[in-house]
Here is the input.
Amino acid sequence: MGGGRILKNKIIYLKLLVLVATLVLPWSVNNRNTSEDILKLNESTLTAYESLICDYSITEFISNNNSSDYQIKFDTTSSIGCFSKINGTSQIDSEIVIYVGTNINLDLLIQSFFWLVLLSMIPISEKYNIKYKNTSILLLLLLLGLHLTSEQYFYNLNSKIFSTNLANNYLLYSYLLGVYLVLLTFVNILENRFYNFTNYLPYIFLVVGTYNTSNLNFFLLCFSFLGISQTLVNKRYKLMLLVVLVFTTFWTSQVSQSQLFFDVDKLKGFSSSSYNIYSIFFWSLMYFFLCCGLVFLFKNTIKYIQVNKLLNNFLYSGVLLTVLSLFSATGPIQNLYTYYYLGLNKRASSTFESVSGNAWRGISPSAEGVGEFYAFIILLVVTVTLKNKPARLSYLQLSLIVVNLYGLYRSNNFAASFSMVLLIIAVFAFHYFKSTKLKYGIVFGILISIPISYVIFFNTASLDELNRKVIKEGLEISYIENLENNEYGLTAVEQNRFLELLQNQEDLKKVSTSLSYLIEKYHFSERNNLPNVTSLISSVAYPINRSEKWGIFIGKYNPSMKTFILGTGINNLVDYYLHHPTKVNSGLVLPHSGFLSYLVYIGALGIFILILLLIIKIIRNKNHPLFIVYVLFMFVNILKSDSVLYINNFILLLFVLHLDKLNFSGFKNTSSDINSS
Amino acid sequence: MDVKIIQICGESSETPDFEKIANNPNFVFTPDASFDVKVLYDLNGNVINVNSWLECANYVNGGWFSEIVDLINYEQRLFITLSIILSITLVRQLVISRGWWSYFKK
Here is the structure.
């Protein structure tokens, strides 16, 4: 017994050593052979550095330039020979920027290796045999070939020699072989740890898994592979695949104008960078297989989840997220390392200062998304503790919660914090008050207090202004040029001259179909004491600070009746973003609502079906209040944030939808549980 | 003078004014019959023959190099390495799945 433990410890130390080696070696092995001194970087040696391209390795450079007076960026187009070397310098304003070479193939191998070693540290469980391994991998590789072809422009920006011509294209061959190897290793790890996997799910917020030079994500590849293998064995999944293929055929038939490139920015790895039939096909199928893989994993492992371990892992993940966010902001090297090895969608915040004086995102791509995660951790731990009598948290857990609260505070996600507090109060009321009247009274009071507090504290606009705020914001970004200003210089939009706009055919053509529909509804609706659809959307958007964002969405969203009902394809915002010309067609301005994003993806019918399924699920679980609490929390937050567009938040959402199968009553707080996790 | 220029183009008594060359779009490099033609490469895989020391120095100064760094070769080497690793993995998988390993152990 003791010998086994020693061996286990030795293996863990060995893996830690391998992780450290992966952190250091790739950036050191490509050193020069000469013993000449390396130039000290300053403004006078900048030109000298430009003539020393692909000469110094980053490690050599840092050893002689250990200040933080410069920024380090990746030159993602580098050849293998120039990987980890200084590939250029530039001066932007007064800041010096150093470019370090990275390569598409080496990134795939190094980053995947690091994450696979991390996954291998999950304790071994009973073995689960996955069928059709090699067939599934080969099918995934075919899909990847489609992806590389359809997003060629993205890959040309990330590799100088990238081409889809198959003759002697070793870059492509190596890439596909690399993925094959990565997936084979993943299968091996997964099979031996299958029943323990979900216990460690919270760490997906720490290790995001987005590749530096590919528009792909490690977890997307791994779980899609699992989804493919399950589709091959499960008739239900096969039937669902047929439905997805029917939808995909519709989406591809709607491509009237292909879009070559869209800068996915912080959505990298989980959103298409182009709009054509192949990209629609790839992302629709990958999304389906990802869902199949995750649903299969959760369904089969949820019974084996150790609640204590899961909760502690959530707490630790939040703490590590906060610590690494702070660490990333301490210097350019730290920032570079966290970006590369955690697979971040976007470089971490390089300062401790909040954006626009309010939200700080740390290593996460979105402050909103990470705020939801922190709030969910606290909600989960506190409500599960409240459910188990006597409710007790250890000092360590309390201190971990405090760190998570700090993360939530820095993310400045008011909606997440507010919904978390209300739901905790509701759970408390349900568990500690015996009177049914009192219980429901408190919940009803909470539900009533939300709209009343909005109107009292947050509504600063008049009722008329509230009703049209969203359409005014939408018109602000539309190219309306033919309507004259009045004698005081006020524009037609500022004067609410919507009827003139509807009568001016030239300007109406430049307004999106959704916006012109809402203007029409606003202007011609009957006075019957019921709010029209425009007023309803506008008055919901205003108090939650979404008038501008939703207004921009409506100004840009230009569907036909068919695409409104069925969408334009999953994980593809390109057509929505670039097809209809507006004043905000550059830079990533997201809809700031998961529902609106999914309206673009799957249309109104898709949203309707999802909501219907959700309601059925809630009704079926009406005796499982904690499940309803978590689902409510998720959906209230998705209404006003884009978090579901990030793979880790999406996986968390799918996990929450499976929490009805989890037995929370097994939760006990002992220090040994905490230490063991 | 830059060590790289000397390494690639050789010694010369000339003192090149790279800025002047860069600023003159009509500058023509005069071929030097005594200079052995050198082949230079850039990171994009472009190739150029230089016919004088000054031309060579100018290109080296701009980041070109003389080693035959065939970019495709790097990928080819990686491909071969990965193919070997993958073959070993697949053979190992086959041996384990068919139970051949236990047969050998006997």
Observations:
- The longest strand of chain A covers residues 86-92.
